[in-house]
Known about the structure:
This protein has 9 helices and 25 strands. The strands form 6 sheets. The protein has an 8-stranded antiparallel sheet with strand order 13-14-15-16-25-21-20-19. A 4-stranded antiparallel sheet has the order 1-7-6-5, with no helix packed on it. 14% of the residues lie in helices and 34% in strands.
Amino acid sequence: MLIRESAAIDVKGLRTAVVRIRRTYVQAAEFEIRPQNDLDAFQNLGSFDHFFKDPAFIDSIGNAAGTRFGAEFTAGRITFQSEQLFDAAVEAGHLFRRHECREDEESLGLQLLPRGGTKHLFHLRLSRSNKLAIPRALFPEAVNCGLLVNMCKLPILLVLATLPLAAQVKITKGNNQISVEIDGKPYTTYFYGPDVAKPYLYPLRAPSGVSVTRSFPMATVAGESTDHQHQRAVWFAHSKVNGYDYWNNEFSYKGDKMGHIFVTNVSKAEGGAKTGEIDNTAEWKQMDGKVVLIEDRKMIFHAGGPNRVIDFDFTLTAKEEATFEDEKDGVFGIRVASELEEENAPGTKTQPKEPLRTGIMTCADGKQKEAACWGTRADWMDYSGTVAGEKVGIAIMDHPENPGHPTYWHARGYGLFAANIFGRNAFTNKKEPLGNLTLKPGEKLHFRYRVVIHPGTLADAKIADLYKAYSAGK
Length: 474
């Protein structure tokens, strides 16, 4: 909690080196120094060489933390070799984790380490009005050590971990699309409107920026598979509702039994420091114009942590009597990047040789690959492999309160995996009865899913533990 009573000085005109280091998660633990004049001031001060090029100094940090954490500096970015080493630096007192503060202020941790001198610690805050505020109790000590008099001449290491003034999750509404950025980097875009057969998110990116979803048919990428045009990155639909197909439903497809899902209202599109949210209402409409279902959708995008996480919440309300028929093509689906496809997967005779297909699908019960996973029931499923030289994966989690939990999985080695409770008969080779479900007007179905995009392997990501947390409401 910030101390309200404080002394403040105007630092706008002072010759001080202010280093703004923002923690993000790009492969490991990474910080960014911005703007450029702050970076130049930091380097001119000599602290850069002292911190990054003095082996004895780095050793001293390593000894304090019980390990060495050799940081690299490139193009204004400071990257630790792993998040564990970042945590060690925090525990040793060399970095401060950012914390919540008022919207008009940045929360700062300042550490002074004069060479051979005594360490001085201050908790400061920098407001948008360029006021540097120091808690009153610490103000005399700051003056006595020279911080407020001649900071540029102090041979110090200055490390700031800041809460950015702007929201970590930025959501921008455009013309029939809504873009999402996390920590200043593009993450995904939500597409909808009269020219879209069903709403979809594209692409989904890992924290490093690598896309884990297929680009076709939205973009042409060399070596990508070009089957199943209707499988657009991330979507929610079913292939037979009152006989109409809302899954295989591109406008270019021919047929008189295709349904379409049109967004009629976006009630919320807001970013925030930790999460951003998009809420919309849509109509599931037959080709004859009859609206059968009303969909209320909520998507929450989470910032922070080594993973990218999205929570999906769908409520379907019957406007007319609506029967979801037993079909394999449904309900919540993702088409992964070509590198995450299984090599030589069934039905992929035309699979391009490049890029290399490295994907392995794994169910919650440990089953792997299409032959074992297709049609099985499980709490979650993960697709992991190597994309653009980076080990990465994506998992879908079925909420334990969903109808029909644990869901059946429509999982294909060519890159599709989808949670579908309505394919009971289809998935069991007709051993189970039909999974048809009928809603009377006004009745509802409620589905929740979590998508986790993670660096590393399935074991690295500890998906089973993440599912336990999701099940517990975390």
